[in-house]
Design a protein that fits this description.
This protein has helices at residues 5-17, 24-38, 50-53, 69-81, 97-102, 117-122, 135-139, 144-160, 176-196, 203-208, 225-248, and strands spanning 42-48, 55-58, 61-64, 85-91, 128-132, 164-168, 200-201. Helix 8 (144-160) runs parallel beside helix 9 (176-196). The strands form two sheets. A five-stranded parallel β-sheet has the order 4-1-5-6-7, with helices on both faces. A two-stranded antiparallel sheet has the order 2-3. It has two domains: 1-39, no CATH class; 40-248, SGNH hydrolase (Rossmann fold, 3-Layer(aba) Sandwich), CATH 3.40.50.1110. By secondary structure, it is α/β, with parallel strands linked by helices. This is SGNH/GDSL hydrolase family protein. It holds the Pfam family Lipase_GDSL_2. InterPro entries: Ester_Hydrolysis_Enzymes, SGNH_hydro, SGNH_hydro_sf.
């Protein structure tokens, strides 16, 4: 059972003073510690396409699902760290990394809608930004080099603003021809993480290694909820250590 704030403050006070009774100044200091601890929170912004938004398809109908990778990731992080962690889903269907960079891909309402990446991120309280693109770059006939340039700019800007960027490769696509082109985009994401020394969640490699992974897809691009949960587990393995270090004050 969680102790009331006053009791926890008193315990801190007693620990500091080494006595069962504390001075008013020490009590105030303990209360301030409690307030600081209560307001410590790590916000994570998840940016990406419809697979970040969480779209799944059934009987020809596609729609965002509550059971998506971002929601699962927040659930898992909050299981370990409570409400000190919050994950915001900024996935937008049909968008590319280049559009996130220039602000043309944000069709959602809100105070930062349509802002270029630098302005949008500067206004965000997020400490960690998770970035997942690649599929629409294939569908819109972008080149791997264009994708590489956009992702590099996203990472460098995030770093310059004091954020911790994490790149994520796309889930594979069942169509072999499209998947071969997607693999070229994936290679660019891996290249950026190597050059910029940022964490990578390699969903493409992980999902491709699963037996019968195509049965976990709801259509040619979007996972079923079960696969979104598996994606979230991979996200957690990379993101949780960053969250822990931020909460501990060691990052």
């Amino acid at each position: 059972m969680r102790c009331p704030a006053r009791l926890r403050a008193a315990a801190i006070c007693a620990s500091l003073a080494g006595l069962s009774l504390c001075s008013p100044g020490a009590s105030a200091q303990a209360t301030q510690v409690e307030r600081m601890q209560a307001h410590t929170q790590v916000v994570i912004d998840a940016y990406g396409d419809s697979t970040t938004l969480g779209i799944s398809c059934s009987e020809g109908h596609c729609a965002p699902q509550a059971q998506n990778a971002v929601a699962y990731l927040q659930d898992e992080l909050q299981t370990h760290h409570g409400d000190r962690v919050r994950v915001a889903n900024y996935g937008v269907g049909g968008t590319m990394a280049m559009q996130l960079l220039d602000g043309t891909g944000n069709r959602r309402a809100g105070p930062t809608a349509g802002l270029p990446w630098r302005e949008r991120l500067a206004a965000s309280p997020a400490r960690i930004v998770l970035i997942n693109y690649g599929i629409n770059e294939v569908m819109q006939n972008q080149t791997p080099e264009q994708f590489y340039t956009a992702q590099t700019a996203l990472v460098k800007t995030a770093r310059a603003l004091g954020k911790e960027p994490v790149l994520e490769t796309s889930n594979p696509m069942p169509d072999n021809r499209l998947n071969a082109r997607l693999a070229s985009m994936v290679a660019m994401t891996r290249r950026v993480t190597d050059e910029q020394h940022v964490p990578l969640v390699d969903q493409f490699a992980y999902i491709s290694s699963l037996p019968d992974w195509k049965t976990l897809m709801s259509d040619g691009a979007h996972p079923k909820p079960g696969l979104y949960r598996l994606k979230a587990e991979q996200d957690f393995q990379v993101v949780e250590p960053l969250v822990r270090r931020l909460l501990d004050g060691t990052l």
